[in-house]
Write a structure and sequence with these properties.
single chain; alpha/beta; six-stranded mixed β-sheet; 12 helices; binds zinc ion
Amino acid sequence: MDFIEVKNRIEENKEEYMETFLSLLRQPSISSTNYGIEDCAELLKTIMERAGIDVKVMPTDGSPVVYGEVIHPDNNFTILFYGHYDVQPADPLESWISPPFEPTIRNGRVYARGAGDNKGQLLAHILAVKTLLDTYGKLPINVKFLYDGEEENSSLNFEPFVRNNKTLLKADVVYTADGPMDPSGKPMVLLGNRGMLYIKMRAKGASHDNHSGNKGGIAPNPAWKLIHLLNTMVTPEGKVLIDGFYDDIRKPTKEESSILRNLPFDPIETAKVVGVDKIDLDAETYYGRIAMQPTFNINGLYSGYTEDGQKTIIPSTATVTIDMRLAADQNPEKIYSKIVEHINVHAPDIEIEKMGSTKPSRTSVNLEVVQTILGAVRDSYEQEPIILPAIGATMPGYVFTDILAQPAVLVPYANADEDNHAPNENMDIDCYYKGIQTSCKVLMDLGEKYTENGTRRKIEIGKV
Ligand SMILES: [Zn+2]
């Protein structure tokens, strides 16, 4: 397969590929209100079938999943493309220059709800497959598609779907195109995200608030109890003192550390963004803290009288909510039980409740398959990609790396100012075609790496 030939084919098909894009955008698919969801799933199925993909719309307890595949017995490597066909609500409607479900082209962009998030990006994979099938009649590797219909509505049924369909979804790598590119226009490759554990702790004093004079020295104060407990949990420098909290954290590889060290970092600008006087860190420490280290953050701390003026009481309860962003290999369940043990030792009468948790996810940059994808992205954009070994925020990447045990790579195809979730959401037309081209190159390069003249070759995926 020849990349120039493939690029030419995309060039020839531009009009048709744009028409496909506009037709998908005309179909609303708001998951939070279920507006147009079923119809969008059916339309997507039709578009995929036209591209030569075997498709089924699979029910869940919420929006259906659209699953597709192109499998050839000679191919020994499978990529799983993930995307979502649902969109955010379009409100406030009056802020749109053109209606959200009447896609309009202006200034080299397509404006419509879902343009960048995620219809323009999920189509890139489908049209890449179509391009290669039209040109060569076959694909260099096996391809599976997994299109979620409620990503914008917490993906409640997605994890159980994946858990129940592990065999169907078996692949060697998961590839997602979602989110905006770097504002510099450079391509980005994201390899993980932090997990999260959210807890609430509550200390109780007397059965009701008491007069701080009449009962002062008699009624216990739960605020102090909670503060004493918190003091046993974290040092003033921020080190977590809960036994075993740091035990399982995966250390960055040499390559990951070097990537962090070389990421663009301006401490003065960053301090302004954060709203502090200065940030006294080098790039490696700054990104290391965000990507590779956990936090133990107090979200809210409340007890007693907090309005203006005086009210002399001894509060009867004190509550704190804490979120922990977890680094790769920290398990939220395990961390939670360590916190419970800690409370049992230090303040057994303080109540704890788990409010929510998500496992972290990280795919090593050292994997051969990741290196192959990086090379494809570099060649397609003719620029060195920015690699983020993990982002600080929390996403459900663990569904792929943990439940399916596959490496997972995220490559955003949309322009930095796609305005996803906002009025006038858009996708740059060049970004759209570049996305198709990039997915083609990824398929071609993986084919070159893992398929030799149709013979089977051992795949070393390694630790994800
Ligand atoms: Zn979104």
